[in-house]
């Protein structure tokens, strides 16, 4: 019996439940069909289902198996999924949440992970394949904040560490603070300018909310905070934001922050905040500036000798925190309000908007490009500061005006104001 079954290949195939035929069998089936054999007779002869015979006849021979195309929840979202995958550094759970909030697609985390896994190798390679970009002397300063905990006395407190790194020489500046606000960013940069004795051509920064209002990951359109623009114009540098979700484009300073946290701070205790700051300053001079840098092979302080002349001189400019550039409307009492105090302006400007500059202990009011008022900055509150000449032409004020000397702009103020106008007026 076994010999009879094995002797007939069609019968053997039927016993094993197989419907697939060899190529030569399919050719034979087509020839027999041309001779008039029907599907029923062919199915018995070759030991396969009638539908299988009909499929071979319909397709004119054997054809590869076609996997049915199935619709999924991700149809039409390939570009969106790829962009979000790289934006969120491969975090599939965040993508799952945004699928629900933006597209109304409720799906399991495992399904998302399976869908995006084809890009994980590319993401891993992208993180490692960062091209080193070297800048010429004086071109660029990279800045960033890092957080760590430091023992100050008997308390272990959270400290924000600002680190600025000159891209060419690798010299660094450190400023520790308890906050990470816009003022801390500005004071950190000004401290770096002071330490290095000049200002670079551009400052590369992260996409901190205190500095950058919007940075599109696809179009790379950047909208900086208005006060950052004013700060940059005042000091004369161009702000640049590193690519979103690609902090490695600011690699020199990213590594600098880690270097400071591990080498200058980790494992140390300080009696007071002042001793902590003194230690950081000493560590920069004695350690960071003197070490042989792993990339350049030179001590940063020696390499800096070829960079210092490329920095823009400070020219004795006052810190930006001492300059305020405001817009005020002249009130009906011929004055503008500033920090609860009021300062007089010529009465003819009632209802007009004027520019108010607070600099070097003075309050300067400008209108249509001209200085129309100049007062000493009042340190009190709710005071009224009046220049009688602002009321000339107002009935009943002439006699009072003649009895009061006219206040003039001090010569010492003209130089910093002129410098400010040169920076702001020049634009970009």
From TrEMBL:
Domain Integrase catalytic intervals = 132-308
Question: Does the record bear Glycosyltransferase in its keywords?
Answer: no
Q: Does the keyword Secreted apply?
A: no
Q: What Gene3D superfamilies does its record include?
A: Ribonuclease H-like superfamily/Ribonuclease H
**SUPFAM superfamilies reported in the protein's UniProt record:** Ribonuclease H-like
Q: Please provide the record's keywords in A-Z order.
A: Plasmid
The record's similarity note reads:
Belongs to the transposase IS21/IS408/IS1162 family.
Name the record gives this protein: IS21 family transposase
Source species of the chain: Shinella sedimenti
Q: What is the lineage of its organism?
A: Bacteria, Pseudomonadati, Pseudomonadota, Alphaproteobacteria, Hyphomicrobiales
């Amino acid at each position: 019996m076994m010999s009879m079954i094995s002797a007939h290949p069609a019968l053997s195939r039927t016993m094993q439940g197989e419907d697939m035929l060899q190529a030569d069998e399919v050719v034979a089936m087509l020839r027999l069909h041309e001779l008039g054999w029907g599907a029923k007779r062919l199915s018995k002869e070759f030991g396969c289902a009638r539908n299988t015979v009909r499929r071979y006849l319909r397709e004119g021979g054997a054809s590869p198996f076609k996997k049915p195309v199935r619709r999924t929840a991700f149809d039409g979202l390939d570009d969106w999924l790829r962009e979000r995958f790289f934006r969120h550094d491969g975090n599939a759970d965040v993508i799952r949440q945004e699928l629900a909030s933006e597209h109304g697609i409720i799906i399991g985390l495992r399904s998302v992970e399976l869908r995006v896994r084809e890009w994980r190798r590319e993401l891993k390679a992208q993180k490692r394949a960062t091209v080193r970009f070297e800048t010429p002397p004086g071109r660029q300063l990279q800045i960033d904040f890092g957080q760590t905990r430091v023992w100050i006395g008997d308390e272990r407190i959270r400290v924000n560490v600002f680190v600025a790194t000159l891209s060419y020489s690798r010299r660094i500046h450190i400023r520790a603070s308890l906050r990470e606000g816009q003022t801390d960013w500005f004071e950190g940069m000004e401290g770096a300018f002071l330490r290095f004795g000049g200002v670079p051509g551009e400052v590369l920064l992260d996409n901190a909310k205190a500095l950058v209002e919007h940075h599109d990951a696809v179009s790379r359109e950047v909208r900086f905070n208005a006060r950052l623009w004013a700060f940059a114009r005042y000091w004369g540098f161009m702000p640049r934001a590193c690519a979103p979700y690609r902090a490695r484009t600011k690699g020199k300073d990213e590594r600098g922050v880690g270097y400071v946290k591990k080498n200058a701070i980790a494992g140390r205790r300080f009696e007071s905040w002042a001793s902590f700051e003194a230690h950081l300053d000493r560590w920069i001079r004695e350690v960071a500036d003197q070490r042989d840098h792993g990339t350049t092979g030179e001590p940063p302080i020696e390499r800096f000798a070829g960079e210092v002349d490329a920095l823009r001189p400070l020219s004795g400019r006052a810190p930006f925190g001492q300059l305020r550039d405001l817009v005020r409307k002249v009130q009906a009492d011929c004055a503008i309000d500033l920090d609860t105090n009021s300062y007089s302006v010529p009465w003819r400007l009632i209802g007009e908007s004027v520019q108010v500059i607070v600099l070097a202990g003075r309050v300067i009011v400008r209108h249509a490009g001209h200085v129309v008022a100049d007062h000493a900055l009042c340190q009190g509150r709710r005071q009224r500061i009046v220049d009688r000449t602002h009321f000339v032409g107002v009935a009943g004020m002439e006699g009072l005006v003649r009895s009061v000397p006219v206040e003039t702009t001090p010569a010492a103020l003209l130089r910093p104001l002129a410098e400010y106008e040169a920076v702001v007026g020049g634009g970009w």
